[in-house]
Amino acid sequence: WAMQAPYVAAINRLKQERNAVVLAHNYMTPDIYHGIADFVGDSLQLAIKATEVEADVIVQCGVHFMAETSKVLNPAKTVLMPDMEAGCSLAESITAEGIAEMRAQYPGAPVVSYVNTTAEVKAASDICCTSSNAAQIVAAMEGDTVIMTPDKYLAQNVAKQVPQKRIVWWDGACIVHERFTPQDLRDFREWNPGLRIIAHPECPPDVVAEADFAGSTAGIIDWVGREKPEKTMLVTECSMATNISDAFPEVEFLGPCNMCPYMKKITLEKVLYSLHSMSGAVEVDPKIADRARLAVQRMIDLSR
Ligand code: 13P
Ligand code: SF4
């Protein structure tokens, strides 16, 4: 922390000069999460917050699709992305052509795209979803068949929660959550009697089946606060446990540390550079933004 303190101080000073706010995802490193964020949350909370920002500048501490979503929802603001290379294996797995292929294969079926997609893919979809509202959104769709893109595991997990729908999916996965195996969870339970396990729904269904509960990153934080387990394993990106451990000193956090290489591209140094030089502004073609906004806004309206 001593090494990072000057960066934190400089960024917080610059935020005032530029009239900027920092929106940070729960997977950011603790220096960002605790040191410079004005708002932290899961993907849905960040999207909703972006619609409410009054400051001139949003610094998105997260990955590129999150910055695009903020720009789409609040186009008058300058949205800074401290590292344009901070992508996402899910967002990179599908293009608008992929959505067209799925529509051709399942004519008339609504397309529900995860927010972990580019603005172009959102624009080609009927509605978006996040891990906190996916089952609710899918259940609200008309017709028997629903196309879910691009996360096959989220789709398979939702299929169990919404058995009345036939869900078909794109073959994408999150490189962080697909690495966990059911055996990892069984091993940690055996080594730590009384361990409570919570998994993110981007994990394969056989992993979710071994957990006590599944939820979005905000759902995971709520669950820990509610259940106050003596020992817990968060089957998700590694920084989550570090970020929330101070708030729950009575809880012991255990488990393997799987990091998202994209999220970890965002550093204090890059945030400082971006705010200082006002570089890394995200732009979305206004025609695409208009259509993408419809899909995201529909999701927000249905989630309220
Ligand atoms: P949530 O924070 O919405 O659960 O999303 C997790 C994730 O992997 C974001 O990239
Ligand atoms: Fe994408 Fe997975 Fe990283 Fe989230 S954790 S940004 S879903 S690769």
From TrEMBL:
Name the record gives this protein: Quinolinate synthase
Key words of the record: 4Fe-4S, Cytoplasm, Iron, Iron-sulfur, Metal-binding, Plasmid, Pyridine nucleotide biosynthesis, Transferase
Organism name: Paracoccus saliphilus
Record's function text: Catalyzes the condensation of iminoaspartate with dihydroxyacetone phosphate to form quinolinate.
Keyword Cytoplasm assigned: yes
Catalytic activity: iminosuccinate + dihydroxyacetone phosphate = quinolinate + phosphate + 2 H2O + H(+)
Recorded metabolic or biological pathway in which this protein acts: Cofactor biosynthesis; NAD(+) biosynthesis; quinolinate from iminoaspartate: step 1/1
Cofactor: [4Fe-4S] cluster
Annotated residues for binding of iminosuccinate: H25, S43, Y114, V115, N116, S131, H200, P201, E202, T217
Enzyme class label: transferase
Keyword Acetylation belongs to the record: no
Record-listed E.C. numbers: 2.5.1.72
Main location: cytoplasm
Cellular compartments annotated: Cytoplasm
